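Below is how a single chain appears once it has passed through the pipeline. First comes the sequence as given, then the structure the pipeline wrote out for it. We keep one example in the README because the format questions we get most often are answered faster by looking than by reading.
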Amino acid sequence: MKKKYFCLFFVLISICIFGQTAVDVFDPFYKDLKTWENMGIINDAPMLRPLPLQEIERILNIVKEEGDEGQQKIAQNHYNRLFLRVFHFGGKTELNLKSPEKNLEYIFAPLIEMNYKIAKYFTASATVSAYLTNKMPDQSPLPRFQYSKHDLAQDSVYLGSMYLLPVFNSGIAIGSPEYYLTIGIARTNYGPFPNNNILVGSQAMHQGQFNFVVNKPKWTYCQSLLALTATNDKRENRGPNKFLTIHSFDYRPLPWLSFGLVDSIVYGNRFDPIYLIPFSAYFISEGLFGFPDNSLIGGMFTIKPIKGMRLDGLLYTDDIGFNEIVKFKKDAKCRMSGQFGISYTMPKTHWFKLVDFNYTFVLPYTYTHVESYNIEAKNYQNYTHNGRSLGSNLPHNSDRFYIETEFVPLQGLSVFLKNAFIRHANVNEGLDDLLILRDYFAKEYTTDGSVFNHATITRKNSVGETSNIDHAYLYSTPFLKQETIEYINQLELGVNLNMPILKSGGSMQFEIKYLFEADINPGANQNMYKKNQACEAWINKSVDSIGAEKIIAERNRQLSEWKKLARGKQFNHYFSISAKVSY
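Resulting structure:
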């Protein structure tokens, strides 16, 4: 009851800081920063976002000095919005529709934006909002593998038939652009790509952040501790004490060339300060305890061969069969994700702004990890946060070809055209390991091909702990080799208008978007194999005593039912209109 009055109080007095500030990775500044990086005006911005106001001010000053007239004006507008006033007042509304389902979402929120440079080495940004909406984020009418940008938590607070929900995002920063520490709660975007990085993607709900950055002319070191929400493998039973620690070292021998390493570890049910040691190797640290956690390592590069052109690459390795690979064996386990892109941005302000192409892949079982023999227990080791993938928004055993073009006929007015072609398959189709199939029919597992679908079958041992019995595809990588492939094409056209309010430094933003989606085999993300009560007794029997023919017969029956639900065609239309005014 107290929570209800607290939320209502915030609405009534309109202390609702929402929208776009330095702490928001969706702020228009970050889109323009990518443009300036592609143009070659900015070459040394840390890839861990959001950035503190100290670093943003440094970047804007560089663009105001070195950019052409058009870019100087854009930078000045950002500077006025973020630094001339502490608060901006206004409101935002959003309407989203999915057809032919007639699934409608509407959002209204009054707003105050805050960016406060308290002192030279101490800044703060905050967003506090009260959403009035008819949908929770997991109910939003969104295209396949896209997620809501709204950080709403389920609560029983209503205004009539609509949800009335608070959101709080904030951050403080201590230090200079060269050395700084930021602490806050916000979404994270970590990596060289502007959208959906495979290290930490902006699609993941906001997290607690503790970031440390050293940014020198020739190199940058970033370290981040994220406080995550753990769930079980059914996306239920949310709780705390899950952490991602990730750090990277990026070296720039030349202004147009950089390469680096990234190292991370996911763990939980305890807090371990050993993972806070800078410039350490997490895999080695984990070895001190017998490798109880989930470590990943990767490498990346950026090349700018000519003005406006940019090539990026990133590989992020979860687990590989090293012994098989060094022996050049044909069949080897390879759990990794990757992103590669090439883009061209006009070096000077122009009506044709950019063209961008990138390719993303997520190999089978990447980001997944087994935690317990009990599917109801929290999983502290898979690469998830609050029931959603923390890395790529694609499930494992998927890839995506993405192309985008943007035109700016007038300053502040942009027209964009995007197309994404996605392939995905449920990795369990084609699985013929009878021991694993026996367990799938006798014990509950997640088999929907998502990040919660790990490769391991388990047992409770004599001391009540988890024992791993067997692993699927331990010596192979069946990447998109399944019979039933889901094909998705998403074609999007949009118009965005962003006009500054010169008197106050505020802005008016309007956007309208239409997306057409063709989805072939849209039911591939359902559980393929389920526990059958008639097969429960199999759990303590060997394959020979059960009979291989019985397991195969049950496999064929459940697989046939799954294929009937998985296969088909869907054609969807998505419309989105939003408006925001901050004075």
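The two ends are 34 Å apart (CA to CA).

See the next section for the split statistics.
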